[in-house]
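Look over this record as teaching material.
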Amino acid sequence: MYLINLLRSILHTLFMAVTVVPWALAVLIAAPFLNSTQIYWMCARWLKLAVDGGTVILGIKNHVIGFENLPVGSTAPAVLLVKHQSTWETFSMPALMPHPLAYVFKKELLYVPFFGWAMGRMDMIHIDRSKRAQAFNKVVEQGQRLLNQGTWVIMFPEGTRIPRGQKGNYKNGGTRLAVETGAPVIPVAVTSAKCWPRKAFVKRPGTVEFSIGKPIPSAGREPDELMREVEAWIEAEMRRLDPTAYPKG
């Protein structure tokens, strides 16, 4: 079984490498003639292709619950705070969500050949982590503009990929943004490490659960207190979705 999964993982990696180059070049050529929303959906189609390829080649399927909890309306704002276990949810969220998403990411990713170059044409929030105060001001300024136009901001509050069954340090950047802009917070639990473990090359077939929680209003809240509520919901939901990964008691 390991050998089969290894071969599948190699094939999927090659599939992504072969398809991202022409796709990114197409984005770079078309970008001057498209608006930001059109560029986003053009890029999101490659992410969906990568996810669909993962389903066909790797045997990884997505199962989403809680779609009814997403805000309704073309300009309804939302700050999505997502459990982070692997690259899979980074690719899957744009493929699953009905609104354009804006990731908050470090600017160094813009220098990744092809993938980063195409990402640079998207209307997202890239920050310089060495300038923390200015970085958050940029997040609020650009986040407010994006939320006003119907783009949802997505952040991983743990900041990095966390091994299955573990909990990272939840940082309050996402809830600070929500409080500053008045947007509701949508917590999302994801069990991707069951199939695509952190920093693992070999993936396993299976079903990844995405559980979308009810919107949490940010008005009148303190960022730290709001993040504690988000953390409590996500971690409780992770234990419900993937109980064998967590110690009992």
In short: The chain has one domain: 2-245. The domain at 2-245 is CATH 3.40.1130 (Glycerol-3-phosphate (1)-acyltransferase). Residues 21 and 113 are 9 Å apart (CA to CA). The radius of gyration is 18 Å.
